[in-house]
Amino acid sequence: MARAPILAVTGTNGKSTTVELLGAIGRSAGKRTEVLGNIGTALSERAEEVPEDGWLVVEVSSFQLELCTRFRPQVGVILNVTPDHLDRHGSMERYAEIKARLFAFQTERDVRVQPLADARLARLLEPMRSAPVWFGSADPTGDGVWEEKGILQFRFRGREGMILRREDALLRGPHNTENICAAAGAALAAGVSERIVARTLKEFRGLPHRLTQVAEIEGVRYVNDSKATNVDAMKRALESFEEPITLIAGGRDKDGDFEAIASLVHERVRHAVYVGEATSKLERAWSQVPSTRAKTLEEAVAMARSHATPGGVVLLSPGCASFDMFRNFEERGARFEAAVMELKRSVERGRR
Prior knowledge:
Blueprint: E1 6-10, H1 15-28, E2 33-37, H2 43-46, E3 55-59, H3 62-66, E4 75-78, H4 86-89, H5 92-100, E5 111-115, H6 119-125, E6 131-136, E7 144-148, E8 151-156, E9 159-165, H7 174-189, H8 194-201, E10 212-217, E11 220-224, H9 231-238, E12 245-249, H10 262-268, E13 269-275, H11 279-285, E14 291-294, H12 297-307, E15 313-316, H13 329-351
Parallel strand pairs: 1-3, 1-4, 2-3, 4-5, 5-6, 6-7, 11-15, 12-13, 12-15, 13-14
Antiparallel strand pairs: 7-8, 8-9, 10-11
Helix pairs in contact: 1-7, 1-8, 12-13
């Protein structure tokens, strides 16, 4: 049985980054903190080891929530619900209902951290007994953390103020602004000061395979976003760059609606390189975007180099699962990074 408070995070995208950020905040606050659940070690393996003044930070998937009958986090976070795993859950309505189970056994003493801009979730969560803490890009008028004019601000239990300037946090991209605000809201609810939250945000570099810059070669940045295994995650990656993008995408399709982001792809992507089972579907969805096919990820990196120009970005953001060619997204990301580093060495040898 757990003695320490449980801070649980669910959502379609951003779970792992948010739980690791919460873990870093807990450790920065001097708490014995374990990051558990879907990200690695099971909660049951560590629950009794952490003292009452520590934290159990838990990543919870929809598959796990399907089976929950009494799970009660003292602080629960739901980041977003966008199309994913519909082959298992059947519909978005069912998927959202399962995600909302995170809060089903909370009491009035507990807190739920939820996004401002999701009407479906707002309706599902309104009957819950826990107290809401909102996050987003506008003042929630109630308790919450939000970004406004480049400033992360908070209001919680009668206190309000600035946490830090957004540019001072190391995590980049609008999706990470949401993750940061959600983690900050959860930390405040768990009793950590905004000063400690700000200090951690200035130091936290994020997780591998999530918009990780691998190298800069001939004025082009190569970025590994292998964790982007669905359309929404790909969308968030594309929104993170103003530079011209050469996109490497594809893999095993999860019934993703790629046409839904066709205008964004056309706007941001200079050239696309497709690899894996979803190649034909991507070509149909983004027919106006110049593209080429690659047989391997290594070939895709070479093709991307030939189309990228100085000042641009080569972005691996597949929008698909990895299982057609790799064991998992980590292996896919590692292969991409190895190919990029080999390219970098080749270019450097050619200059000698």
